[in-house]
């Protein structure tokens, strides 16, 4: 079977991915005018999820603290934005601002301050990521997962400890409002989603191009066999550090975009649940697959919304609603995490992307030769073997010595 | 000086619980090379079930006996139905599965018991006794210290003096050879898993009365503290876990006690964890022949 994607230039592929996301997002912003906030959340989170899927899937490093990097980026962007606003880089407010995103009356920040603030957020998150990453490249699996978990949990305490971060009440951020002719035509909320979409499309395009190039190949080589990768001259520690910093930087941009979308920076946005939901998005989308990360993020954001809709549709009692709210989505997403990981190391998009495949899940014991493992079918001839399969992927079954 | 003595004694008593929980993490790590990230959620679930019974008949004491049994049962179920199906060589996936299990368990607890803190009263007084003008320990913390001491001695005897303990150690250190010599390694791994989650539930029953009470996420803080303690001692070493638990208990007590700022605790924890991982990645008490994780 001839796969046209194999011959496509990585940069062209990245451009196509970014433009497709942009088009889909703009279309969605008109198709779902009542769900602009959720749409914005999808866009901000998928930036973070895209970095995480590269880290987990291609580098084999697990981070449970992406929300911590999101918070780093968010607060750095918020402080920069407010500092620029206070320094007087303002313009007159557009007429007729109203609705959910209406800020206090008065001048609005100049448009160019937003990219500056977002870049400051990315830089801060990357710097913190590099600090943690120096430790991370020496850690494996559980150690890194635990360390990033602790890192993610210090967000709220740090915002309370440092006065400038505003504690539990968070910060109110003076983000620029949409310039007049455009803003009044499309609406402030939709405009902000579009701006976030531009950021997300850029990230998706860059990551798509980069993971298909030399860096991605080095990452996969270092993941699959550290010693062999080092032997052929791949600087294993440096590529791993690069993946960790890249995932931190994308999370930082996601956090900054979230601040822009909401106009506030709150510790509550970046709790442990956010980190875990990002992980769910990555896993059900197939670790290492950027398109999967987009689908996974959509799913993760949609589940709580759909749960609420279903509950009000079936007229559940208020007591029942209170019990299920928050808990039902958590249970569902946790279950997805378990089942998808047990069933396939690649997630659903791995299967979609590779065509039909014989999948057999045995119910026997894992140490009895083939039966407990996932049978991935015959290897396909002429395909690149390891295009982003998750983590420590399944290996061919080894015959049991006792048999 | 009185403050230093109080913080030291109290830190050791708190550290005893961290030591117990760290021990439960180490037990699973030795048997399966997995850090059970669902341990906190499972121990709360066990404490919840145990207290549901104990609050009606038998009180906290019956709860203390029941919690390890419920915890062990949950741990065995988790291992049989999720982790074991992954097989070896999939450590990253095992962590992800454990996190999924933790999410499900916490969500179910939230649905059944609600998201408000429910008090778990201590069986004896929690008022700090003053000895010679120096505040020291409450009767309850003395009880905790005694219970932890009993548990640690019991586990040490189990592992060093019994046939099952020998098989457990053998399966952890050399699974292939043990299998050839007739040890049922799979069964031993499941047993170690149940033992570990039982110990974790025991620790939860001991520590929850000193805090705001039962809540689906009530053990999250203890989990990350105990994880730090276990890493400090080297994940492979039970003795290291116990010493690490006491050390972390002391450090956290000094940091939060002298600054009067409880929010510093997680920051100190992260600093400690990173320092250990950067300076001695295999832990302070790791032996020279440690297996690569």
Q: What do these coordinates show?
A:
The complex is a heterodimer of chains A (403) and B (293). Chain A is an all-alpha fold. Chain A has one domain (4-345). Helix content of chain A is 64%, strand content 3%. Chain A has helices at residues 4-7, 10-31, 36-59, 66-86, 113-136, 141-153, 155-161, 180-186, 188-211, 214-224, 226-231, 236-262, 272-284, 290-313, 318-324, 327-343, 348-354; strands at residues 90-91, 108-109, 171-172, 264-265, 360-361, 374-375. Chain B has 293 residues and is mainly α. Chain B has one domain: ABC transporter involved in vitamin B12 uptake, BtuC. In chain B, helix 1 packs antiparallel against helix 10 (238-259) and helix 10 packs across helix 11 (264-279). The interface between A and B is large, with 58 and 54 residues.
CATH class of chain B: Mainly Alpha
Most extensive interface, residues per chain? A-B, 58 and 54 residues
Distance between the termini of chain B: 43 Å
Strand order, biggest sheet of chain B? 1-2
Looking at the structure, the CATH topology of chain B is ABC transporter involved in vitamin B12 uptake, BtuC
Offer a few descriptive terms.
heterodimer, A: 403 residues, mainly alpha, two-stranded antiparallel ribbon, disordered C terminus, B: mainly alpha, ABC transporter involved in vitamin B12 uptake, BtuC, 11 helices, 2 strands
